[in-house]
From TrEMBL, chain A:
The lineage of its organism: Eukaryota, Viridiplantae, Streptophyta, Embryophyta, Tracheophyta. GO terms for cellular component: anaphase-promoting complex. Gene3D superfamilies: Tetratricopeptide repeat domain (1.25.40.10). It comes from Raphanus sativus (Radish). This is Cyclosome subunit 8. The keyword Cell cycle applies.
From TrEMBL, chain B:
It comes from the Eukaryota. Belongs to the APC5 family. Pfam families: ANAPC5. SUPFAM superfamilies: TPR-like (SSF48452). This is Anaphase-promoting complex subunit 5. GO terms for biological process: anaphase-promoting complex-dependent catabolic process; cell division; positive regulation of mitotic metaphase/anaphase transition; protein K11-linked ubiquitination. Residues 317-417 form the Anaphase-promoting complex subunit domain. The keyword Cell cycle applies. Keywords: Cell cycle, Cell division, Mitosis, Ubl conjugation pathway.
């Protein structure tokens, strides 16, 4: 285990260096982790603990984890491998200060101009970085200016070419530091040269691991587990953060959760880790857990907007209108022009059944960030609710084209096509969604329903799908019931009985009652009676007697029949073996 | 949703349009002069006017010429004043130093327009009529400029800078030594351009060689491709030239990549939706025509660019789908097809479906199903295709889209007739569509018939001429291949006579070809406009622009005439394709009915007239027909030579039938030369090509086992051959392949004849003849008659007279239309008949026919029969006492016999 103190010192130095280079978001991230480390008792002052006065749930979580993580030996973290780089001398400090202030005022071109003749690595980096950001800003503007009838024109960052040339020259001569390598990686990625970009970013994080920006760029380039495993990363505790986030992106949620739990041993109060854990739990559909985490987060950090759309999704799924509206109001007051805030408001309206308004807010979210994935998917859901299939399909398809692994959007596409009476066409999309999330019973059930439609009517395939759904622990219990019914329909009494029994078991276990229960009981009673298993038949019949309705009468007659047959055994024998 | 309602793109000001405006200013300056300053004669002035007219017309073209190209063209137009013109143009551009200058420029432009009441105009004054084409152009430019926001003006300004810089960059290096030695510079520039041009032609040639030396006939896409290629090449050359000057090393990766970068953002000015759609349509045609011989990656890169420029243009996905389809990439094709329909909801770009009211809410996903079905069909998944098409039928019935329904039914019938489905009942039985469910109890052919009729009826009432035409053709095909009988009345009264009806085939073909006179009523002019305008410009250049265009004229030799007509009346490619298909079908029907010359003629007509516009698979079919003809009538040497050419050309076509034909020919050849092992191998390979699913690819399977039986027959394993033939007959009966039945019967007769059981053979031969008669298979009938005659003779020489009579009855048909083998057999048999009569003395006739036979058989390398002919010849000579000739014939005989016994000695030239 790496000592908390050394971690703290590393991060403190890193924040200094990162903000010196105007890498504000990386500095912000590092700062969050810094206060996430449990404070020393020595400098335990009331103001320091402000961030740590978390909810009881977090305390609980924290205490359990500590008990797990303390006995662990220090594996994986080799702390001394990367010493903190020394600051190189800036030749003209004054100019650098000016450039930095310009940069902080978002006057990027001005900043890069000030540093035009500076040769120190730090100045070169800031100049290039400012230039890159200036190009990005111009690109965004141009995209809006050039928007034509056929969509946005191909606006590109015009600084990329010159930046690439300069940085590659610097790299060749070796006059490049890890920050330069990071920028080089970003530029290469923008230009579409992914392998080189990866190499450059790996080099950057290996020499300076505290730059979270570099890690997250690298993570976005790891689109498969093979690529991730092929990276040659030196050990550092930052690597664990990276791996956790990469696993999450690759839908390996349990692995990612394990990493986060491990990290919580040091960064026990990190909001970032909490949020990421919540994300993973959300993917595993542990909504209650997610809710607890987010409640705690909001208590600690009431003005947080990041990841809050996820919280709203949970509230939506739990149909907690009031809580959702409270959340929406809060983020609205904090920063209404964030895609997350718009999504939360959209979710609220959707829950209230006002789909037009919901669409409006999702649209606003997309205006703020055209690649905001969940807004596309959610908008698709809204259009489905509004029965506007083409628009829904369009929205889902956009989501899929942004991230082809988004199983929700694939599922939505399938649903939309099924809705418009094209089950066979829809099957392809369901297959796609299942490919990305093979362990979700809902997807399998949707596909099975598709096969079951009267237009296709491929019952064997449907049965296969339901079986898969059962294997994936179908919580709603549709699959078992359907399996039993399908087998019944196909005249396979034995299989039907097996599944009805299983279904009954499940319903008993969950204490459910309903028409399904009655149906299963009736079937089983008749089935066992015809197969001469009177003991079982009688048990089921008596259970039916607890219900009222026509089934009760049927059960009575069944019981009567059973008794008749039981007493008239010899006569039956006579029938069977006529002498 | 943005994807659903989209207006056509507006007219945008581009640097090229500004240059045209500058030239227009020259052409019609606001000053009052009868002849403006630089022009020395009225004709010169008019010539510039014409040129400008063509430029304005082609302004809707997808590619805009660069300043450099414009200057080149000006040089040809302007003759002695070219220098002045180009100078003026470049000076005018360089005087635009700030956005304000642009504003002033367009204010000045207003001055050259006359007032709308042109009464005040004086006679000798040149005034641009605001309602003329040129005037309209100027007005549109001014309007478009006025609509621009300041950002837009800034963008225009930067693009003008780029536009000029490009033109300068090529001559920049010469500017350094510029001491107003204009002529020298010009000379240098000319050199440079010549160099570039040479390089460009070289590259194009290379490209052509690489793509299998196919002359690019299709006019416009070719031109467009050249434009793109040209762009690429010249740019590369340019950067090469400039790098040379600096460091004298070969082109570096960096510089080439920058050149490409420039290409993306500078050379393509985005045009209106309408133009791009038209352009994409042309590309689609090109993909279909050239098949996979067209480099798919080049199209891909182009589409990528287009998509970057216009992400909302979903048609790009469709093009990509087509491209992937033709390069046989199933997953990518599927992906793109689905993507296209997800985005466009089937409402974009399909002109076959007129946009009707209320479709915007529901989308037109039935078209997606139709396309998906056709894709599965193409990739050879008949069951999937049928499922999807069934769903398409259902959905189009639900949304009452009759047009789509008609097309779907046609596609379905096509699928059934091409591939055939064994277990259709299980698939179709589950469907709810009334059309298909009635058909579930019928055989595949009957279903095809019903589907076709349904589709035809709908297409007729909806006035879908192309579909009507192609349905008629499909119907003709059906009539040709399948035996008519009353469809649903299977009572004792119903006549069970099977027959085909050539008249109805002919009628259907004619109805199909009727389209040509009819199609003009249709108004699908989407592509035509853009095409015509660019062609217009090109034609205008021709008289002047020899040096520029000379390289083009070489590549297209044939059919320039037809192309000319093409542009004049602008027959859409699809129409000419259907008409072409009717010729192919004619050829096929003649083939079946047994007229070789007519079949050949029709194929030739197709290959010469429609070869350019046809799809590659149709063209392939025509080639194969011609090769088959060669093999039958000219012998294998020619056929194999021709096959080699066809192989080079069509092997890239997916589902190529070239391999099939090659195997057939090799089998035939091996059989004739007596190389039975090879024949067997070929036969097996042929069988292996067919799909393993029951009921699919029946024709291929029948063919393979027919050949197997023949191989066995040649190996003298009669009982086995008979067994194979019997089971084959049963298969044919099961799938009601009537025409194949006739040939199987003939084969059975042949087997019995060879095995010496003439009596057993007779009924088969007679049955075959009667089949042929009712199906109008004249040539097959002649050949069956020959077999019958042979059987008679086999019964004993006392039947020789009857056999001879039979033969003479069939002789006209055999000699007129029969292939080499059949003719030779007839000749030999005739000689045999004569010789069987001991009193026969007219040995000249016998010798004549024998000589004929042996010549033909030598061309065919049919050793067995040739030996027989020579043997007979020797006998006759012997009888006549002509020892010398006898010896000659005998040695020839020996040669053939040894060749027959050692088939491996001759190296198999093609295998």
């Amino acid at each position: 285990m790496v000592s908390k103190e050394s971690c703290r010192n590393e991060i403190r130095a890193a924040i200094e260096q990162l903000s010196e280079r105007c890498l504000h978001s990386a500095a912000k991230w590092a700062g969050e982790q810094l206060v996430g480390i449990e404070q020393d008792p020595s400098n335990f002052t009331p103001s320091n603990t402000r961030f740590q006065r978390g909810s009881s749930s977090i305390r609980r979580r924290f205490s359990t984890h500590e008990s797990i993580s303390t006995p662990q030996p220090s594996v994986g973290f080799s702390h001394a491998a990367t010493p903190l780089p020394e600051e190189d001398e800036v030749t003209d400090c004054d100019l650098y200060y000016l450039a930095k202030s310009y940069f902080n005022c978002r006057e990027y071109r001005r900043a890069s101009h000030v540093l035009r003749d500076q040769m120190s690595k730090k100045s070169v980096f800031l100049r290039c970085y400012a230039l890159y950001l200036a190009g990005e800003k111009r690109k965004e503007e141009e995209m809006i200016e050039l928007e034509g009838s056929l969509g946005k024109s191909d606006a590109i960052n015009r600084e990329l070419v010159s930046l690439e040339r300069e940085l590659s020259a610097l790299k060749r001569t070796g006059a490049i530091d890890s920050f330069g390598l990071y920028l080089y990686g970003v530029v290469l990625k923008e230009k579409g040269n992914e392998t080189l970009a990866r190499a450059s970013l790996v080099e950057s994080v290996n020499s300076y691991p505290w730059n979270w920006n570099a890690w997250s760029e690298l993570q976005s380039l790891c689109t498969s587990i093979e690529i991730l495993n092929s990276l040659n990363l030196s050990n550092h505790w930052m690597k664990e953060f990276f791996l956790a986030s990469a696993y999450q992106e690759l839908r390996m949620h349990t692995e990612s959760l394990a990493k986060y739990e491990y990290l919580q041993g040091i960064f026990s109060f990190s909001n970032y880790i909490q949020a990421q854990t919540a994300k993973a739990q959300y993917s595993l559909r542990e909504f209650d857990q997610v809710e607890i985490i987010f409640e705690g987060l909001l208590r600690n950090d009431p003005y947080r907007v990041e990841d809050m759309d996820l919280y709203s999704n949970v509230l939506y799924a739990k149909e907690a209108c009031a809580a959702l509206s409270y959340l929406a109001h809060k983020v609205f007051l904090t920063d209404k022009y964030r895609p997350e805030s718009c999504c939360i408001i959209g979710n609220y309206y959707s829950l209230k059944g006002q789909h037009e308004k919901a669409v409006m807010y999702f649209r606003r979210a997309l205006k703020l960030n055209k690649k905001f994935l969940s807004a596309w998917t959610l908008m698709g859901h809204e259009y489905v609710e509004m029965k506007n299939t083409p628009a829904a399909i369009d929205a889902y398809r956009r989501a899929v084209d942004i991230n082809p692994c988004d199983y929700r959007a694939w599922y939505g596409l399938g649903q939309a096509y099924e809705m418009s009476g094209m089950p066979f066409y829809a099957l392809h999309y369901f297959r796609k969604s299942i490919f990305f999330l093979p362990n979700d019973s809902r997807l399998w059930i949707a596909m099975a329903k598709c096969y079951q439609t009267e237009q296709i009517y491929m019952l064997e395939e449907a049965i296969k799908c339901y079986k898969r759904a059962v294997n994936c622990t179908d919580t709603e219990g549709i699959a078992l019931n359907q399996l039993a019914k399908l087998h019944q329909k196909l005249g396979r009494e034995e299989e039907a009985a097996v599944y009805f029994e299983k279904d009954l078991e499940r319903m008993d276990g969950e204490g459910l009652e309903g028409p399904n229960m009655l149906e299963a009981l009736v079937f089983l009673a008749t089935h066992f009676k015809t197969h001469k298993k009177f003991e079982e038949a009688e048990v089921y019949c008596t259970r039916i007697l607890d219900y009222s309705g026509p089934e009760k009468e049927k059960a009575k007659s069944l019981l009567r029949g059973i008794r008749m047959e039981k007493t008239g055994f010899p006569s039956m024998d006579m029938e069977h073996f006529p002498l | 949703m943005a994807g659903l309602t989209r207006t056509a793109g507006a007219f945008a000001v581009t640097p090229h349009k500004i240059s045209v405006c500058i030239l227009l200013q020259l052409y019609a300056p606001s000053a009052q002069m009868s002849l403006p300053f630089p022009f020395s004669s009225v004709s010169q002035h008019n010539r510039l006017g014409l040129y400008l007219l063509s430029l304005t017309k082609s302004c809707d073209d997808i590619f805009e010429p660069k300043l450099e190209d414009l200057i080149n063209q000006l040089r040809e137009v302007g003759e002695d004043m070219d220098a002045w013109l180009t100078d003026h143009l470049t000076n005018r551009f360089s005087s635009l130093t700030s956005p304000d200058d642009l504003l002033n420029f367009f204010n000045d432009m207003r001055g050259i327009l006359g007032s709308l009441d042109s009464v005040a105009a004086q006679d000798d004054q040149i005034i641009l009529d605001p309602n003329s084409i040129l005037g309209m152009f100027v007005r549109r430019c001014i309007l478009a400029f006025n609509l621009l926001s300041f950002e837009g003006v800034c963008h225009l300004f930067t693009s003008i800078e780029v536009y000029c810089r490009e033109a300068h960059s090529s001559s920049a290096q010469y500017d350094a030594s510029n001491d107003n030695l204009e002529s020298l510079i010009q000379h240098d520039q000319m050199d440079m351009e010549k160099y570039i041009m040479d390089k460009a032609t070289e590259e194009i040639k290379l490209q052509k060689n690489a793509s299998g030396s196919i002359p690019f006939h299709l006019h416009t896409p070719e031109a467009l491709f050249k434009v793109t290629e040209g762009l690429l090449v010249t740019r590369k050359e340019k950067s090469r030239a400039s790098t040379k000057k600096i460091e004298a090393t070969p082109i570096t990766r960096a510089s080439s990549s920058t050149a490409d970068d420039n290409l993306v953002d500078e050379s393509l000015f985005l045009r209106t939706n309408y133009q791009i759609q038209g352009f994409l349509m042309e590309q689609a045609d090109a993909i279909e025509t050239h098949g996979s011989s067209l480099s798919s990656s080049s199209i891909e890169s182009f589409l990528q660019k287009l998509q970057n420029l216009a992400p909302e243009l979903h048609r790009v996905h469709f093009l990509r789908y087509l491209n992937k389809l033709h390069s046989d990439d199933y997953f990518a094709a599927l992906d793109n097809l689905l993507r296209y329909f997800d985005y466009s909801a089937g409402t974009e770009g399909f002109d076959l479906v007129p946009p009707s009211a209320g479709c915007s809410m529901n989308g037109r996903y039935e078209i997606a199903l139709l396309c998906l079905g056709m894709m599965h069909f193409r990739f050879g998944h008949p069951n999937l295709a049928l499922e999807v098409l069934t769903e398409a039928v259902r959905v189009s019935q639900q949304v009452s889209n009759d047009t789509c329904l008609a097309y779907t039914l046609a596609a379905m019938s096509n699928l059934l007739s091409e591939m055939g489905i064994a277990s259709t009942t299980s698939v179709l039985g589950s469907s709810y569509s009334p059309v298909t469910s009635t058909a579930s109890s019928l055989s595949v052919q009957q279903r095809v018939y019903i589907l076709l009729k349904e589709s035809l009826r709908r297409a007729d009432s909806l006035k879908l001429r192309r579909l009507v035409a192609s349905n008629h053709l499909a119907m003709a095909k059906f009539e040709l291949m399948h035996v008519q009988r009353p469809l649903l009345s299977f009572g004792p009264k119903a006549s069970m006579r099977h027959k085909t009806c050539p008249v109805s085939v002919c009628k259907e073909i004619r109805l199909g070809a009727h389209l040509l006179s009819d199609f003009s009523a249709e108004s699908s002019t989407m592509t035509i406009d853009g095409t015509l305008s660019s062609v217009w410009l090109k034609d205008l250049q021709k008289p002047w622009g020899q040096p520029v265009l000379s390289q083009e004229s070489g590549s297209r030799k044939s059919s320039t005439f037809f192309q000319f007509c093409d542009h004049l009346v602008s027959i859409p490619g699809s129409v000419s394709q259907i008409i072409g298909a009717s010729y192919l079908l004619r050829a096929t029907s003649w083939e079946l009915y047994g007229s070789a010359p007519m079949a050949r003629m029709n194929t030739l007509v197709y290959a010469t007239l429609f070869g350019d516009s046809s799809s590659s698979s149709d063209a392939e079919l025509a080639y194969l027909k011609l090769i088959q003809h060669l093999a039958l009538y000219k012998g294998y040497k020619d056929a194999f030579a021709a096959l080699k050419i066809a192989e080079e050309k069509f092997l890239t076509v997916s589902k190529s039938k070239v391999l099939l034909l090659k195997l057939q020919l090799l089998h035939e050849h091996a059989l004739h030369r007596g190389n039975l092992k090879l024949a067997q191998r070929m036969c097996n390979e042929l069988g292996g090509l067919a799909s393993t699913t029951m009921g699919v690819d029946m024709e291929q399977k029948v063919e393979a086992s027919l050949r197997e039986a023949r191989t066995l027959l040649a190996a003298k394993q009669y009982s086995q051959a008979a067994k194979v033939a019997h089971s084959l007959f049963c298969t044919c009966h099961k799938f009601s392949l009537q025409i194949e039945k006739a040939s199987v019967l003939l084969l059975l007769a042949e087997i019995h004849k060879k095995s010496g059981n003439a009596v057993l053979g007779l009924p088969y031969a007679l049955a075959s003849i009667s089949f042929c008669q009712s199906f109008n298979l004249d040539l097959l009938k002649a050949s069956a008659t020959l077999t019958l005659a042979e059987l008679w003779l086999g019964l004993g020489s006392n039947h020789a007279k009857r056999a001879l009579d039979l033969l003479h009855g069939a002789f006209p048909m055999i000699l007129g239309h029969g292939g080499l083998e059949l003719r030779a057999r007839a000749y030999i048999f005739e000689a045999n008949c004569y010789l069987s009569n001991p009193s026969f003395s007219d040995s000249d006739t016998v010798l004549d026919s024998l000589r004929q036979a042996s010549d033909e058989l030598q061309a065919l390398e049919y050793h067995e029969l040739a030996a027989e002919a020579l043997y007979l010849m020797a006998m006759v000579y012997d009888k006549l006492g002509q020892i010398e000739e006898r010896e000659e014939a005998a040695t020839m005989f020996k040669k053939h016999i040894t060749a027959l016994e050692n088939p491996q000695n001759e190296e198999p030239n093609m295998a």
